[in-house]
């Protein structure tokens, strides 16, 4: 019998909660609590029909074909209303499994989805450790959230090939700037491999709620049937079609992210905050007491993430411009005795 789990998992982006606790208005805050690009894709003018009409299957197929090309995949993906929605459905892809091995610490919603189905969750440190378990499912985020840990593609591929009896799920939500790590080209070719990609993080459009899941036909069918008709909205499809067709805009976002990454790294270094992990979209930092530093920064209207599983660390997203980078640097300098 599936478990009822009521306490929500804390995530980044809870700005309204921070305002309720520390005051101020949204415009006064610098929100660096998520791993979402601070640069949003310029939106096209949308046809009225995408708002008024239910999405046509032909349009869903067209966008999925574009996603296949954009991500360098071997199969057409399933479009989902955000990869979080897909995570909720992962247990149905291996209904006979009773245990899942999750390379941890990582995004907490994987475990939550399987716990709801009364499956045993086995947190492991590496894929090799996952191989030593009895789990019928293994989950890896690559690059990992929140610590940025990377598992090389050859290692992932070797694990998938050697573990045919397991379903291997790889969440590549933060892999847009690291295609060299991606397993998306093998998804569909390897029958036990599922790869998830997030649209909103790289394109700075998380509110759109759009993602793609790459898998062989049988697994894709299970996911599609669980999602039901019209899972993805017409406006989301129209914006994704626009994004995937504009290489110039994609390259512009990449360039902006590279510059913001350099500025943010410099701010952290100048504030003497040790960086212990990172991706193109965030930094993972050692600060001694993560919750205390988070609250200190919040008192200055600067929002970051702290973690129960790693209480000495915080995650900091990208400062979008020089002014924000200076603000981050100078606010962090207030806590220098904690990190020096």
Automatic annotation (TrEMBL):
InterPro entries: Aminotransferase_I/II_large (IPR004839), NHTrfase_class1_PyrdxlP-BS (IPR004838), PyrdxlP-dep_Trfase (IPR015424), PyrdxlP-dep_Trfase_major (IPR015421), PyrdxlP-dep_Trfase_small (IPR015422). The keyword Transcription does not apply. Residues 65-319 form the Aminotransferase class I/classII large domain. Its EC number is 2.6.1.-. Coiled coil: none annotated. It holds the Pfam family Aminotran_1_2. It comes from the Bacteria. It is an enzyme of class 2 (transferase). Keywords: Aminotransferase, Pyridoxal phosphate, Transferase. Belongs to the class-I pyridoxal-phosphate-dependent aminotransferase family. Its cofactor is pyridoxal 5'-phosphate. Gene3D superfamilies: Aspartate Aminotransferase, domain 1 (3.90.1150.10), Type I PLP-dependent aspartate aminotransferase-like (Major domain) (3.40.640.10). This is Aminotransferase. GO terms for molecular function: transaminase activity.
């Amino acid at each position: 019998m599936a478990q009822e789990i009521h306490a929500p998992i804390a995530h980044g982006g809870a700005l309204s909660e921070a305002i309720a606790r520390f005051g101020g208005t949204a415009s006064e805050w610098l929100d660096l609590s998520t791993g979402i690009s601070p640069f949003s894709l310029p939106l096209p003018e949308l046809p009225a029909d995408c708002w008024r009409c239910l999405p046509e299957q032909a349009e869903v197929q067209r966008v999925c074909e574009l996603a296949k090309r954009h991500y360098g995949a071997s199969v057409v993906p399933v479009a989902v209303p955000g990869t979080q929605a897909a995570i909720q459905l992962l247990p149905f892809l291996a209904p006979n499994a009773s245990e899942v091995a999750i390379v941890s610490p990582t995004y907490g919603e994987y475990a939550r989805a399987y716990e709801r189905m009364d499956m045993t969750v086995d947190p492991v440190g590496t894929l090799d450790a996952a191989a030593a378990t009895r789990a019928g499912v293994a989950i890896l985020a690559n690059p990992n959230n929140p610590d940025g840990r990377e598992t090389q593609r050859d290692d992932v591929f070797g694990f998938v090939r050697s573990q045919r009896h397991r379903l291997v799920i790889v969440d590549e939500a933060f892999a847009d700037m690291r295609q060299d790590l991606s397993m998306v080209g093998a998804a569909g070719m390897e029958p036990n491999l599922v790869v998830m990609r997030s649209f909103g993080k790289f394109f700075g459009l998380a509110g759109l709620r759009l993602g793609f899941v790459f898998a062989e036909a049988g697994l894709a069918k299970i996911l599609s049937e669980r999602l039901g008709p019209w899972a993805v909205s017409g406006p989301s499809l129209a914006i994704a079609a626009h994004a995937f067709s504009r290489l110039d805009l994609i390259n512009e976002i990449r360039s902006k992210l590279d510059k913001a990454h350099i500025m943010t790294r410099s701010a952290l270094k100048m504030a003497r905050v040790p960086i212990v992990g990172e991706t193109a979209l965030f930094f993972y930092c050692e600060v001694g007491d993560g919750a205390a530093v988070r609250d200190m920064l919040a008192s200055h209207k600067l929002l970051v993430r702290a973690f129960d599983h790693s209480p000495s660390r915080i995650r900091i997203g990208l400062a979008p411009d020089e002014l924000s980078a200076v603000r981050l640097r100078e606010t962090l300098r207030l806590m220098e005795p904690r990190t020096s």
